[in-house]
C-alpha cells in the first residue's frame, strides 16, 4: 500500500508546494481536493471558500496531498486556488495549486493527474453541503473502474435552499460535461507505437 507502513499509520510524503503540472511523485493514500468558490469580483477568499479551506485544514494530515482548485472569474483578480494557497494553514505532504479549473467537472478532471501520480486510494472532496452530491458524482464517473474511494465533506453551514435550487439545472449539464472531459482524456492518452 503506497504511503503507509504495514499495520501502521500513513507515512508522510516529502513536503512539496507546487503548481499543477510540476514537481516530484510522492506516494500517498489520500488526496484532498478543495473546490474554490467565488461570486466574481473579489480579490480575496469568499467566506464560503474560506469555510471550505478551513474544513480541509481540519481533516488534513502530513500524509495527504491537498489540491486547491479554482480560477479567477474576473480578469485581473487572483484565482481562487492561489487565494486558498496563501491562506492554507493545514498539514500536507504536498499542496497542489490548480488555478485553471472553471467548473466542478474541471476541478475533478484536473485533479485526476495528481490522484494517479501519487497512487491515491481515497479522494476527499471538500465543498459545500448543497454541492457535495454533484461533486462526488463527477469524481466517481471520471474515476470509473479505478479502485479509488470518493467521499465528500463540508463545513458546518446553515441549510441553503437557494443554492440547492441553483444546483438542479447544473445536474442536467453534468452528463455532457463528463462526456467532454472523458473525450479530452482519451485524446490526451498516449497511443502505443505500431508493431514493428
Can you describe what's shown?
Mean pLDDT is 81; it is low at 1-20. This protein has helices at residues 47-59, 80-87, 104-118, 132-142, 161-188, and strands at 16-19, 30-35, 65-69, 94-98, 122-126, 149-153. The protein is globular and about 40 Å long. The protein has one domain (16-188): 3-Layer(aba) Sandwich (Rossmann fold), CATH 3.40.50. β3 (65-69), α2 and β4 (94-98) form a beta-alpha-beta unit. α3 (104-118) crosses α4 (132-142) and α4 (132-142) packs parallel to α5. It is of the alpha/beta class and 196 residues long. The longest helix has 28 residues, at 161-188. It contains 5 helices and 6 strands; from the N terminus they run ββαβαβαβαβα. The termini are far apart. A 6-stranded parallel sheet has the order 1-4-3-2-5-6.
Provide the descriptors you would attach to this structure in a database record.
196 residues, alpha/beta, Rossmann fold, six-stranded parallel sheet, 5 helices, 6 strands, 38% helix, globular, disordered N terminus
Quick synopsis:
The protein is an alpha/beta fold. Helix content is 38%, strand content 15%. The model is unreliable at 1-20 (pLDDT under 50).
